[in-house]
Amino acid sequence: MKIVLSGFYGLGNTGDEAILKAIVDNLRSELDNPDITVFSLSPEKTSQEHKVKSVYRGWRHENKQKVKALREADLLISGGGGLLQDTYPTKFLFGPLPYYLLIVFLAKLCGAKVMFFSQGIGPVTSTWGKILMKVFANMANFVTVRDQYSKDYLHSLGVKRPETVVTADIVFAFQGTEDTSAYDSLGLDGSERIVAVAPRPWFEQEEEYIEKLAWTLDRLIEQRSVTPVFVPMEPPYDTKVSKRIIEKMEHGDKTKLLGDHFTPNQFYQFIGKADVTIALRLHALIFSALSNVPHIGLSYDRKVESFLKRSGMWKHSFTLEEFNREELLESALYSLDNSVEVKQMMEPNVEALRQEAKRNVYLLKEKFGGLK
After folding, report:
1. DSSP letters for 38-75
2. CA 231 to CA 276: how far, in whole Å?
3. How far apart are alpha carbons 147 and 82 in whole angstroms?
4. Residues 197, 270: contact at Cβ < 8 Å?
5. pTM score of the predicted model
6. Are 323 and 304 in contact (CB under 8 A)?
7. pLDDT tens digits along 168-204
8. What percent helix, strand, coil does the chain show, rounded to 5?
9. Which domains are delineated in the chain?
């Protein structure tokens, strides 16, 4: 089967690169020698890392190659991740939402089937964005979404023609390999209690949450002698936020900051060595769940809340707009002091999510496996 992948690939976001690795690895595990082409902003790097064909994703050049790839393809996989949203400005045909939907339209013109794969939907708030969704998203042949909220939201936008099935984020089917590069880079001696911290920039809430998080980390250092390690999932943006948090801390000299050159697998392997994770980044939380590491989310988006409810950690987590530092400290202390109990609670939830993630590919085989 010839497959084209369209997503937020080749832009250096660890979560999206983890999605790409998980999709490619699981397609190869379940399909007979799939021929995979990825639309990427860094096609040479993507091709080298994943042993796939790759075409430049933007409209500036390689448009003939994109059309050729779609004409030859049996299936376009759009996703995974939160592609279909207009949080960032959408102006006519410019912006993430028009881009991904135009790729879908182009695929249909070229004769390929289309699957929205393990997607999180929304928010789509602009009138133009809603029109685009109703027109172009209904062209898909089949849809899987990573939570019930996304399915309901998709239907509320008038996207009802393709069958839609709730599964889980494909990163729950991530196939990691042992690699201690990230951990070794920090010069730790193995005795530390690590709190992995994965922040991100976020509009008007940024300054307030930075101060609260800095205070919380200081108290954890004082009360439990932890070593906070910042994990920049999307450099350089997360690196800059991490440094601002460290500057606000009284004990910033007792923190560590991972370099921004590590692969998704290396970040995943590092988070697996943490005692607790505190994160805004969804895929840092998913990496934690996969490694059975207690995790506390600061939810800036419905996708984070939806995941935390499924992992069982929402009662220990908070919305970014409403949390206070004392409650965050209490939650972190509880997770550190009762890790065995927390892990036992999480384990069956995470295993269920792992099986649901794999179901994305099983459903693809069921719906499109007859394509040659």
Report:
1. EEESSHHHHHHHHTSEEEE-SSSS-HHHHHHHHHH-SE
2. 13
3. 11
4. no
5. 0.94
6. no
7. 999 999 999 999 999 999 999 999 999 999 999 998 7
8. 50, 15, 30
9. 2-166 (3.40.50.2000), 181-353 (3.40.50.2000)
